[in-house]
Specification:
Three copies of one chain form a homotrimer. Chain A contains four helices and 40 strands. The first copy, chain A, is an alpha/beta fold.
Amino acid sequence: MEFSAKKIAEYLNGSVEGNKNTKVSNVSSINDATPGSLTFLANPAYAQFLYTTKASIVLINKDFKIEKPVNCTLIRVDDAYNSLAKILELYNKYLPEKKGVSKLAYISKSAKIGKNTYIGEFAYVGENTIIGDNVKIHPQSYIDYNVKIGDNTKIYPGTKIFDRSVIGKDCIIHAGAVIGSDGFGFAREADKNFKKIAQIGNVVIEDNVEIGANTTIDRATFGSTIIKKGTKLDNLIMIAHNVVIDKNTVIAAQSGISGSSKVGKNCMIGGQVGISGHLNIEDNVKIAAQAGIGSNIKKDKTIMGSPAIDASNYKKSYVHFKNFQRIINKIEELESEINTLKKKKKK
Amino acid sequence: MEFSAKKIAEYLNGSVEGNKNTKVSNVSSINDATPGSLTFLANPAYAQFLYTTKASIVLINKDFKIEKPVNCTLIRVDDAYNSLAKILELYNKYLPEKKGVSKLAYISKSAKIGKNTYIGEFAYVGENTIIGDNVKIHPQSYIDYNVKIGDNTKIYPGTKIFDRSVIGKDCIIHAGAVIGSDGFGFAREADKNFKKIAQIGNVVIEDNVEIGANTTIDRATFGSTIIKKGTKLDNLIMIAHNVVIDKNTVIAAQSGISGSSKVGKNCMIGGQVGISGHLNIEDNVKIAAQAGIGSNIKKDKTIMGSPAIDASNYKKSYVHFKNFQRIINKIEELESEINTLKKKKKK
Amino acid sequence: MEFSAKKIAEYLNGSVEGNKNTKVSNVSSINDATPGSLTFLANPAYAQFLYTTKASIVLINKDFKIEKPVNCTLIRVDDAYNSLAKILELYNKYLPEKKGVSKLAYISKSAKIGKNTYIGEFAYVGENTIIGDNVKIHPQSYIDYNVKIGDNTKIYPGTKIFDRSVIGKDCIIHAGAVIGSDGFGFAREADKNFKKIAQIGNVVIEDNVEIGANTTIDRATFGSTIIKKGTKLDNLIMIAHNVVIDKNTVIAAQSGISGSSKVGKNCMIGGQVGISGHLNIEDNVKIAAQAGIGSNIKKDKTIMGSPAIDASNYKKSYVHFKNFQRIINKIEELESEINTLKKKKKK
């Protein structure tokens, strides 16, 4: 795939400064670009690289002032970062698209398969499952019985989606994700053995949700574990039984949410965060990476630490923690001064 | 599946208060139940919902005193929570059961397959492997050569069980779990390169163990990594080479145990806990979520923090950590008072 | 497989003390060895077990002085631990080797497959993919289109390797690993919805790299996520888009590295470590388990804590944290002494 500066500028409603026929076939970052690649300048901290970059084309904001001669063709746009995102999307569309239903897939006779679907080799689609239009079920995926998958959803290889799960439209489920495994529920008996509590609920994933690679979402004990519209989960996340995550929340990799907790809308949760069970995290909460949440969190809070507290409070306390030896020295000094004062007294 | 109050009461040895013919086809929680569903009241904190619930049937303890009229049919039982668990189990039994050996599975001729087994599509069973009776090997599972799997064990889709693993009876291995991958063992050489230490041991999982989705259990360098009877591991857990976990221990999601550590009986380990290598965690130890264990732990201890210490000590210290700024202010006050005292002295 | 002391000594350039015809078929640790097994004594702390072990053969350092009679055959070697590693490697070579291309695999006609490869049942190899010589692609693996895999590399069952990934020679990719899933990149729009940033880059893994079970490595947004020569990653690790990890670094299980961070050569990173995005961790850095890294780290540093600081500093501060109640008591004492001094003053 090769694009000229002229064509790219047209696509982005931008204007070319330099050779309109310059061609690129690749996207790079401005500091390690090679000839034949397109790059962008959005962060002023990288402005220095504009004058030395080997990229052939640079996307640049309309109002950016050039201070030295440049070796590349520039395309002036309203917002260089957004324009880059559009170019990435365009590039993606030119990648080969997978189509058709493989003869090497297993599809139950009672399953209903929409139009224009892709079902790859060694994929399994169970009884009475309903697959929407334009759905892509990549090789070696497992879709159990009575599952519903909405239009345009992509299921990457090796994903497992268990019985009675409901997946919305325009979702992306990455490789190796497990949706609908049993919740972790046991009752300890008098003899110390654990008796399994049957897990008869399901998982509901609404439209436009993205689930990361090897992430696991357990089915509800009864009722549903729910991930609402537009929420994005990164890789290796654990969502326990009966958790509900509201709309447009993002959760970074390796975080875990314990049974029956609720997470609000528009929350931003860092990586490796742990949230205990039966909690309520309200809307717009921000949680720093590695935090441990053991109590309800009110809306709009930013929290940090394990157990997590208000982030600015945590940071202050942590500064003192780092200086703990000096604080101890100070206390010892004070003690010795008091002793001196006491001795003087006696004299 | 629809059940009447009469039938449910008979099954639970309970007694009906209200319409014996009320039917339910679903289980819900008391606060968001819909008509046609059964619920339960075990936790007194939820008692208020009894008078407003839309559930058709509520399981309730024999001795519970009703204070207002209710709209639903009640079933009085000895223990409402236990009775609910029984209902969930009953419901589970009515779900469609998978049976038979698929023609699309690969089964080595030298493998021995027990009676009444299910082997799903695209599953792989290697040479000389022995599968017990009533075992369910779901689609796309991988069972290597010389593996033994005991009666009634369930292996969910996409599980990988490597050569010479031994899995007991009545176990459940959830989707995507990896059992018997190589231990992480290397020797650093003079040129800074790492040389792999061959990992020739295996994994032994005793009876009635549950292993969560995408959990990984490495084979021993030599000898066995062992998970003993009745122990339950949640999702995304890492068990390293030569670890031994004793009976009836539960470990929550995303915890990791490093090489050669031993964990005792009846331990309760929270989520995202890390245990260093070559340690001994004795029986009945409780470890709070996100704790980091760097030394041996005596039996019956409850620990918290990273590095973990006695939990009540940790909590006390953490209260002071949260108040660190105030403590610093206090120290500065004392310092200024001492300075005042010293000045007065001089006068 | 049974080996005599004579044969083992020859293989290791060692000398036998005792019966040269003693045979072993197994490897055990010295304290729980059974007859018929070989063990080793490298750590002096285990020397006591030499006189009671039930092992038939013990590998022992040339200069080790025996203080009591032993019941086993000894083999004297230059370095008992290295010799054991050689024996494990030898044992490994005798295990059955998998060969041939299964008729139950799907291999695109445009893929180029090297000599002496193994491609197992239900494996998928996409268009234009190039597989080197002696490569082993175990059952149910997924190798997408335009992938390159170097000679002698082993791909364990259920691994997924996405389009345009480049994997070097002599690599080992363990079961369930996902290489080349989309990076986690979104732009928040005015209406609070997230718009996906297309991820068009790839993953490059150089020679002699080992990737643990269920570990995920995301493709770059553009350009490459890179794991360099000789680096070893344990299980359940998350490597985000555009991360670069230099040569011969080891990372223990469940650690995560956020987008665009760079990790230097010869680093040692413990388990459950989190590294934020866009950071630079220089060569030879050591990071303690569970540390959280939020800033650049200079070479040769050893760090600990979350946020991580110099390890010796962290340890000192943590000692005081554990004693926080006593420190508070001391401050209160000082306060009361100052009050006493002030009162005396007034008199």
